[in-house]
Amino acid sequence: MNGDELNPAAVAKPVEDVQGDGRWMSQHIRFVQECKDAEPDVLFVGDSMVQLMQQYEIWREFFSPLHALNFGIGGDTTCNVLWRLQNGELENIRPKVVVLWVGTNNYEHTAEQVAGGIVAIGQELISRLPKAKIVVLGLLPRGERPNALREKNTAVNGFLRSWLPRLGQAQFLDVSREYVHSDGTINPRDMFDFLHLTASGYRTMAKPLSDLLLQILEETPEERRASLV
């Protein structure tokens, strides 16, 4: 794994306001404000794959009951998420688990760089939330049929599977194989645009993720009992 200083995918930077409406920064500021009042047990952070989860029933069924916050912004890269976490989105909150799902938008970076950027975010989370567990979701396949970006996402997942155990507090969950049929195609019933998930597509990943989160949260039974008193 290369040093972060050599890895452009591990350099924190905000999104440039190319459209001129300031939406990205407004969302970031809203998240920072939410931190002042919220007391989440689980924090979700990442790109549109995280952001859109709130639009579906699986969020209310599986994740809202876990006192979850959703800090997903569509289009984010590893660089953008790292900047957000370094600039207020972790202030005043102490989640027990952070779910990280980002990397598919890092088009200009190699698979090794993308994985290094994700690991850098994990290191940042551990530094700022030393008691939290980190769950990193593997990148999903994209495109109806096999293509170069799919291959890169698979390679990213391979690096993550190898590197994340070194962080100690991080676990890797990869459900990418569930979306590819034997002939190599992806069904639009799972991904309506062959990238973003449908309701049924989210359900495929929500159950194993929910099971893992419940398992992690139950690792502190004293805290669990105290919350029920």
From TrEMBL:
GO terms for molecular function: 1-alkyl-2-acetylglycerophosphocholine esterase activity; platelet-activating factor acetyltransferase activity. It holds the Pfam family Lipase_GDSL_2. It is an enzyme of class 3 (hydrolase). It catalyses: 1-O-hexadecyl-2-acetyl-sn-glycero-3-phosphate + H2O = 1-O-hexadecyl-sn-glycero-3-phosphate + acetate + H(+); a 1-O-alkyl-2-acetyl-sn-glycero-3-phosphocholine + H2O = a 1-O-alkyl-sn-glycero-3-phosphocholine + acetate + H(+); 1-O-hexadecyl-2-acetyl-sn-glycero-3-phosphoethanolamine + H2O = 1-O-hexadecyl-sn-glycero-3-phosphoethanolamine + acetate + H(+); 1-O-hexadecyl-2-acetyl-sn-glycero-3-phosphocholine + H2O = 1-O-hexadecyl-sn-glycero-3-phosphocholine + acetate + H(+). GO terms for biological process: lipid catabolic process. Its EC number is 3.1.1.47. The keyword Hydrolase applies. The keyword Lipid metabolism applies. Keywords: Cytoplasm, Hydrolase, Lipid degradation, Lipid metabolism. PANTHER family: PLATELET-ACTIVATING FACTOR ACETYLHYDROLASE, PLATELET-ACTIVATING FACTOR ACETYLHYDROLASE IB SUBUNIT ALPHA2. This is Platelet-activating factor acetylhydrolase IB subunit alpha2.
